[in-house]
Amino acid sequence: MISPLEAFLIILVIFILIIFFKPDAILKFAKSLGELRREMKKGEKEAEEKE
Questions:
Q1: Mind listing the pLDDT tens digit for each residue in 3-32?
Q2: Cα 1 from chain centroid?
Q3: Which of 14, 20, 39, 48 has its CA 20 to 30 A from that of 30?
Q4: Range of the domain at 46
Q5: What 3-state class would DSSP assign to 7?
Q6: 51 in a domain, yes or no?
Q7: pTM: predicted TM-score of the whole model, two decimal places
Q8: Does the residue 13 lie in any domain?
Q9: Is 31 helix (H, G, I), strand (E, B) or coil?
Q10: Residue 11 counted as domain residue
């Protein structure tokens, strides 16, 4: 279990990263992650159909 101080530091680091990278960059990253997940699911379905 992480201590409250560690949790606070993690949140602080994430907040600094958000400011540093700007929201539009984070949105692009989230979109690319979503697309990656979709592609992986498609690949799994195709692999199941081939078997």
A1: 989 999 999 998 888 777 777 777 788 888
A2: 22
A3: 48
A4: 22-51
A5: helix
A6: yes
A7: 0.41
A8: no
A9: helix
A10: no
- The number of C-alpha atoms within 13 Å of 46 and in the hemisphere containing its C-beta is 6
Amino acid at the residue 39: E
Q: Note the Cα 9 to chain centre separation in Å.
A: 19
CB 29 within 8 A of CB 36: no
- Quote the number of domains for the chain: 1
- Rounded-to-integer distance, Cα 33 and Cα 41, Å: 12
d(CA 11, CA 13): 5
- At 22, the amino acid letter reads K
How far apart, in whole angstroms, are the C-alpha atoms of residue 40 and residue 27? 20
Residue matched to tokens 């960059």: 25
